[in-house]
């Protein structure tokens, strides 16, 4: 069993930055591909970014490429999302997810197979 707890959300002006963190329980963190997803009000959940088990590879949604950076620390069992140049359309609840069997690439295509989800953290970007 893995528990994921997100933190770092809040209110920020357009153009600002936020850093989200996700802390994972358990000793098998490095066995999971990790990803960030978001869900805006009235919209479906969407992929944001994912990272391989070794942290060597990453994938980003087109909408955040060049602005967001995902990273992980397998010693501390954390995954982070640095968000720069934030836009009002980035407003959403951001969720951390862990996938044991899939890859960081497959996470980008289909989020329904994630093994674990956090409860989310709200990011609000004002214009």
Describe what this molecule looks like in 3D:
The chain has 127 residues and is mostly beta strands. The protein is 5% helix and 46% strand. It contains 1 helix and 11 strands, in the order E-E-E-E-E-E-E-E-E-H-E-E. Strands 2, 4, 5, 6, 9, 10 and 11 form a 7-stranded mixed beta sheet that branches. Strand 4 (33-39) and strand 5 form a beta hairpin. The protein is globular and about 40 Å long. 36% of the residues are buried. The mean pLDDT is 96.
What are the defining features of this structure?
single chain, 127 residues, mainly beta, seven-stranded mixed beta sheet, 1 helix
Could you give a quick summary of the protein structure above?
The protein is mainly beta and 127 residues long. It is built from one helix and eleven strands.
Topology of this protein?
Blueprint: E1 4-7, E2 10-13, E3 18-24, E4 33-39, E5 46-51, E6 58-60, E7 68-73, E8 78-83, E9 92-99, H1 104-109, E10 116-117, E11 121-126
Parallel strand pairs: 2-11
Antiparallel strand pairs: 1-3, 3-8, 4-5, 4-9, 5-6, 7-8, 9-10, 9-11
Residues in helices, as a percent range? under 10%
Distance between the termini: 40 Å
Let me know the number of strands: 11
Structural class by SSE content = mainly beta
Give me the number of helical elements. Answer: 1
Q: How much strand? A: over 45%
| Low-confidence region ranges | none
Q: What is the approximate shape?
A: globular
Sketch the major β-sheet.
Answer: 7 strands, mixed
What's the gyration radius in Å? 13 Å
Mean pLDDT: 96
Regarding quaternary structure, how should these chains be classified?
A: single chain
The helix/strand series, from N terminus to C terminus, equals EEEEEEEEEHEE
């Amino acid at each position: 069993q893995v528990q994921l707890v997100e933190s770092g959300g809040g209110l920020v002006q357009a153009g600002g930055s936020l850093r989200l963190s996700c802390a994972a329980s358990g000793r098998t963190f490095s066995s999971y591909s990790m990803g960030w997803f978001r869900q805006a009000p009235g919209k479906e959940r969407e992929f944001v970014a994912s990272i391989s088990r070794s942290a060597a590879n990453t994938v980003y949604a087109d909408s955040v490429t060049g602005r967001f950076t995902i990273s992980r620390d397998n010693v501390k069992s954390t995954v982070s999302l640095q968000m720069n140049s934030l836009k009002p359309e980035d407003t959403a609840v951001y969720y951390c997810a862990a996938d044991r069997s899939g890859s960081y690439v497959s996470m980008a295509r289909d989020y329904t197979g994630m093994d674990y989800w956090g409860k989310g953290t709200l990011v609000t970007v004002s214009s």
